[in-house]
Design a protein that fits this description.
By secondary structure, the chain is an alpha+beta fold. It contains nine helices and nine strands. A hairpin with a 3-residue loop joins strand 1 and strand 2.
């Protein structure tokens, strides 16, 4: 797989890069093995990862830990997928996918914003990255076994979070009982189907606002909300401010 890489920050304990996939890779990649512990933070689009016997979806609501101890494979259905990649000097977590809360998504984009404007010093950037790493640490309890219907549902939602599918429609798409899917999805992900879809929509909104989106109504429609007001209520509930205020806070030149 070929990536365009841009170094955002580098120190003795952590390096931070922006990686952009040049071409789609619809099949599984060769088996890779990282030289040091890495944390991948997807910014856009979803992809699949295979670790050992488990295959699962990675999307902007997740973070992916990779360890030198475990070879992995990736499958990217679309070109242009972007991730922030942190390479760590200290091994902090086993390989696997973990949930990344919305607050961490916002912190990540504020780091990108500050870097683009050259408005952050080394100590502040390191502290922000340390906060991101801590928020992405897996829980102490053993990871739940991969549930195939849950993974299919996650992939279905992440492929097009702007769709307004009902529970019945999602369940039919992944060949599962609606109530069984709703229960298992919450058990395995810690959130609801609606919660995942809303988080993916909010992360897309953050990127659009950071790039200077002028029309909140157009953004609301593109993300699948019924109206400007519906989007604003959801956004304010997630971030504590209106989309227009967040745009003022985040607006910057696009990061190349």
């Amino acid at each position: 797989m070929t990536y365009l890489r841009s170094v955002l920050f580098e120190s003795g304990s952590v390096s931070c890069q922006l990686a952009t996939l040049e071409a789609a890779e619809p099949g599984w990649s060769p088996r890779y093995r990282v030289q040091g512990p890495r944390l991948l933070l997807p910014l856009t689009q979803r992809f699949e990862c295979r670790l050992g016997s488990d295959a699962f979806v990675c999307d902007p609501a997740a973070a992916l830990w990779l360890s030198p101890d475990g070879p992995y494979q990736l499958k990217h259905p679309t070109a242009g997928q972007r991730s922030v990649v942190l390479t760590l000097a200290e091994d902090l977590a086993p390989s696997g996918r973990v949930y990344l809360p919305l607050g961490s998504q916002l912190l990540l984009r504020r780091c990108l914003q500050a870097h683009a404007l050259r408005a952050i010093d080394a100590l502040e950037m390191q502290e922000h990255l340390a906060g991101l790493i801590q928020s992405a640490r897996p829980p102490d309890r053993p990871a739940a076994r991969i549930h195939r219907a849950v993974e299919r549902a996650r992939d279905y939602i992440a492929a097009a979070p702007e769709r307004s599918d009902t529970l019945d429609e999602i369940a039919r798409a992944v060949h599962c009982s609606a109530f069984h899917l709703a229960r298992r999805f919450r058990v395995h992900t810690g959130t609801s189907l609606h919660g995942l879809r809303n988080q993916l929509r909010m992360t897309l909104a953050l990127d659009r606002l950071r790039e200077g989106e002028r029309s909140i109504s157009a953004l609301a429609a593109d993300l699948g909300f019924a109206s400007h007001a519906h989007f604003t209520v959801a956004f304010r509930r997630a971030f504590g401010m209106a989309p227009s205020q967040m745009r003022t806070n985040l607006e910057a030149h696009r990061l190349h």
